[in-house]
Amino acid sequence: MKIFKNDDLSACVATGWYMGLLAGIGGFIHGLGAALQGSTSTNGLWIKTWSSGPIFEYLDGSPALTIVPNFLITGILAMLAALLLMYVTIACAKKKYGGLYIVSASAIMLLTGGGIISPIVGILAGSCVMGYQEVTTGKPLGTWEKLLASLWPYLSAVTVIIVAFTAVVPMIFAGFAAPYYTKSSTLTYAVPILLMIALNFLSRFHDAKIVIDKNVGDQ
After folding, report:
1. N or C end: fewer C-beta atoms under 10 angstroms in the chain?
2. What is the pTM of this model?
């Protein structure tokens, strides 16, 4: 059953768009660094996508996995996978298997040097989009569920700000911002991921509340 019209704002889709595009940008930066290392051997599955510059110095080279034993090919495939992820995020989020497409693109990016955190974020994006298809007209939400649903816009804003300062700024402006971050800081990655997991659940409650409110209004 179709819950939302094409012009309706779904929290699941909006959250999926944000996470998917963010993951794609991160994967593309990883791929660019790998490609710039040229046609040389990766010497294993675990690589550092950047071998010089601020990202290498301050962000430990942006580690990644690859099943392709060549940096140039790995980088090209990672950038293509990142572009594919961004495309399916935008074009397929409201389609029946949109979430599966996003997860699949993220998995390809993971295996071709697109980083570790970025593909995880992409998989979370796919999960959010799957929530768009799963929302049903079930039992009314409880008090706590309604509260969580109302928190989605605020947690979204907080997440955008925190992710910007813990991930986007250090990655894109590594030479300026990264000296203020430590390589071993688990919080740098853990906090944004935990916030995105929370958004995954809150977006479902938010959409479920919209559906219930519509049904009540139609009665």
Report:
1. C
2. 0.81
